[in-house]
Amino acid sequence: MNYKSKFHKAFTLAEVLVTLGIIGVVAALTLPILTNKHQNSVALAGIKVAYAKINDGFLFMRSDENLDDLRSLSVFHNMTPETFQDESVQANLDEQMKKYFNIVKSYKAGETCSECPVYVKMNGELADGGQYDYAWRGFSSDGMIYFMHLSGPQEAANKGKIQSVVAYFFVDINGTKLPNKWGKDMFQYALAQNGMLYSAWGKELSEAMPESQTYWGENSSGCGSPANKDVSSSSGYACTARIIEKSWKIDYD
After folding, report:
1. N or C: which end of the chain has fewer CB within 10 A?
2. What is the pLDDT of residue 147?
3. What is the distance between the alpha carbons of residues 143 and 210, in angstroms, rounded to a whole number?
4. Are 147 and 170 in contact (CB under 8 A)?
5. pLDDT digits over 58-77, tens only?
6. Residue 76 · residue 136 · CB < 8 Å
7. Cβ distance 116 to 165 under 8 Å?
8. Around Cβ 112, how many Cβ atoms within 10 Å?
9. What does the H/E/C string look like for the chain?
10. pLDDT value at residue 179
């Protein structure tokens, strides 16, 4: 009987180390891309949820009061940029927002909020005082923070669909969690008298209110230039407009 020796060739240590090295390099290159895509996906979902909830909240208000023009809603009674922080105005606002927006905890404008995050711009600079004590702040049951404020002028210069802005909203889509940065988890909307939400620095709002609004596509300081993904030197204030006008896509880093 003949026996044939069988030899099994194994990988050498050097080959294993080279293979692991290649895997490590590929992982190092792809992981940041995958992480960024995941973060953008989560952010986009949050932006859409916030947009829908603000729309729905004021839709229910309009329905309950049988009004089309938001300027006549009771939530905005006696509210102007000058009276916004008045105690009676803030008390009324607080009551209405809790009723329609599932707010579990709130701070009126002017109240110190120790748990409110400090926000920075895309470029790392402190954003407008950081905590926005001048705004009404509400923590919702789904983990978002809503900031509502007024800043004039309220009336549109070129009146069309937008005749006036009744309120501005900042929304932190993941609450107190990091990064607390504009364009990453902090976004803003403008609520017009017709019940529609518009993006600050957006085309429609900038055309209606050219003295107080700048179009992001013509001013890279808000969220970079349309053809450039690098927005690290911008404020991030206009990124909501960029996302919406790019067909609800986050096309920047």
Report:
1. N
2. 96
3. 34
4. yes
5. 999 999 999 999 999 999 99
6. no
7. no
8. 8
9. CCCCCCCCCCCCHHHHHHHHHHHHHHHHHHHHHHHHHHHHHHHHHHHHHHHHHHHHHHHHHHHHHCCCCHHHCHHHCCCCCCCCCCHHHHHHHHHHHHHHCCEEEEECCCCCCCCCCCCECCCCCECCCCCCCCCEEEEECCCCEEEEECCCCCECCCCCCCCEEEEEEEEECCCCCCCCEECCCEEEEEEECCCCEECCCCHHHHHHCCCCCCCHHHCCCCCCCCCCCCCCCCCCCCHHHHHHHCCCCCCCC
10. 94
12-24 per-position pLDDT tens digit: 777 667 777 777 6
What whole-number distance in Å separates Cα of residue 100 and Cα of residue 114?
A: 25
Largest distance between two CA atoms of the chain: 106
Fill in the amino acid letter for 232: S
pTM confidence score:
0.85
Check pLDDT > 70 for residue 227.
Answer: yes
The burial class, CB within 10 Å (0-12 / 13-18 / 19+), for 162 is buried
Amino acid at 100: Y
* Alpha-carbon gap, residue 213 to 208, rounded angstroms: 8
Residue 51, both tokens: 């947009």
Residue type, 133: D
> What does the block give as tokens for 173?
């889509």
Average pLDDT over residues 73-92: 94
